[in-house]
Amino acid sequence: MTDQRGGGHGRVRGRRGLPRGGLSPELIVTESLRLLDTEGVAGFSLPKLGRALGADPTAVYRHFASKDDLVLAVADRLNEEAGAGFTPSDCWVDTMTETARRVRATYLAHPAAASLSAYRTTQGPAEMRGIDILIGAVLAAGFEGAEAALVYRAVADFCLFWAGCEASFLALDERLQKNDQNAWTSAYLSVDRAGYPSIWQIRTELPEVRDDDIFETILSFVIAGLVQRAPRPCRCPRHAAAGAAAG
Amino acid sequence: MTDQRGGGHGRVRGRRGLPRGGLSPELIVTESLRLLDTEGVAGFSLPKLGRALGADPTAVYRHFASKDDLVLAVADRLNEEAGAGFTPSDCWVDTMTETARRVRATYLAHPAAASLSAYRTTQGPAEMRGIDILIGAVLAAGFEGAEAALVYRAVADFCLFWAGCEASFLALDERLQKNDQNAWTSAYLSVDRAGYPSIWQIRTELPEVRDDDIFETILSFVIAGLVQRAPRPCRCPRHAAAGAAAG
DNA sequence: ACCTGAACACCGTTCAAGT
DNA sequence: ACCTGAACACCGTTCAAGT
C-alpha cells in the first residue's frame, strides 16, 4: 500500500510524473475548475490539463470519454457547490429567491466553468436535489399538475439562463468586455439627441447601473408575478401583505 | 468599371475563384449566417468560410481583423433582423412584450449564430434603435432617472439572456440535446419517490412542457412585476384592469 | 490490461513572397 | 497596394506500439 513516490501528505498533484493510478475523476475535475478559474476558457484544453496534472497530454482520456463528458462532470461539481448546505425555507418565496441567488453566486465565482456547463443536464444527485427543492416550493405555492411543471420550468430556466449569461459575459476576454464597458461609459453618453431621444434622456444614469441591482430587480419582478398568480400566497410576515394585495 | 469576369446578374458568389474585390463585409456576413444555419457552430470556421465563398481560406482576414470582429458583424445582422419593421406600440406593455418575442424569434431562427453573438454589444444602428425603443417604453411606464436605467437593463438583459440561452441549447450537437430530452422523458419518470417526492408528484407532467409556454410564462411574470411597480400603469383596455388591481 | 506518445485532421492567425 | 498560401502554434481525438 505504501510507496516512496512523491511527497505524501495528501498532496497528490506534483510537477513530475504522477504515479500510476494517481489520477481520478475527482482530481481531474478539481484541476479543471482550478485551471478554468485561473486561465479562463482559452486556457482549458485537455493537453494543458494533462500537463497541469503532471501527466501525459492525453491522460485525461483514460478517465473521460471526451471533453464534453468532463464538462458535464464540472457542471455536477458546480451543482454541488451551489446546493451545499442549502435547506429550503418554510416560505416558498424565500426558497425560490435563495435558489436563484445561490446559482448566480456559484456561477459568478466560476465564470469560465459556468460558461461551458450552464444549462446542461447532468442528472447528478445535487442537480436532482435542487430540482426537488424548487418543485417543492412551486407545490407549496399551490400550483398543481401541468401548471406546476410549467411554473417550475419557467423559474428554473430563469435562474440558470440568467446566471449562465452573466457568467458567460465575465468569461469573455478582458479586451472584449472592455468594448462593452465603453458602450456604456462613452458611446451612449455622446448619443445623438434627435436620433435616440430616450437613450439621451437617461444617458448619465446608464453607466451607473450595477449588475447586482439588475439581478435583484428582475428577480423581484419574477417573484411579484409569481406571488400574484400563486393559488396559495405565502403567509410570512414579510410576504403576507403583497399576497393580500394581489389576491 | 465593367469587366468580363463572372456571370454578372448580381450573383457574386460562385464555385470558382472570386474576382478581386468580389468579397465584401456584407457578403461575408450573409455567407456566415448561411453556414451557421446549415452546418452549426462546428461548421463555422474562417477557412471553411473562405472556401464556401470560393476564395482563399485566409481571404476573410482582408475584411475582418479577427473571427470575433466577424461575429460582431453577424450580431449586428441579427439585430437588424429582429428590429425590421418594428414600430413601438402606444402601449408600453405591448412594446416590451413584442421586443422580447422578436428577439427570441430571431435567435431561435438562427441558433448557432445567436449562441456566438448573444449578449455582445455592437453599438450598431439597429441595436441603438432597439435600445431607444425599449427605454422609451420604460419611460412611458413612468420610471425616471436611475430607476429607469435599472429597469431598462433588467428587461433588456432578460430578453437577451433568455433568447440567447434557448438558442445556445438548440445550437448544441443533436447528440447532446438528446441527453437532455432523456432526462425529462425517462430519468425523471422513474425517479425515486422517497428521495425526490416533489419531482415524483409531477413526473408525468414534466415531459409535456413546451418551450414556447415556458417563455410566455416567465414573460408574463416579468410583465406582471413591472406593471405592479410602474408609476404609470398602462391604460389599454386589456391592461387597465391589472394596473388598477395592483395600484 | 493498462499506459504512452506519435499522429491525424483540423483550428485562428501571421507574414514573407509574390503579382 | 493588394492578394496568396505556406507556416506556426495550437486544438480534440485516435491508436499502434510499448510495458
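Residues 45-47, 58, 61, 66-67 of chain A lie near DNA strand D (CB under 10 Å from a C1').
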